[in-house]
Amino acid sequence: MHTVLREATCWPKLNLCLYVGPVRADGYHSIISIFQRVHDNEYNDKLRIFIRPCNEARIEVRGLECYCNGTDSSVFRAASLYLRKTGLTASLAIEVEKGIPSPSGLGGPASDAAGVLILLNDEFNCFSHNELVSLSAEVGSDVPFFTSDTDAAFVSGRGEIVEPIASRTDLRFSILPIKAVKTSTRHAYEVLDARYKDSVGTRIQEKESFFSKDYLTYKNYLINMYYASVSTWAFENDFELLYEDKEKPSGSFLTGAGPCRFSVREEN
Question: Scanning 114, 219, 231, 237, which has the fewest C-beta atoms within 10 Å of its C-beta?
Answer without folding.
Answer: 231
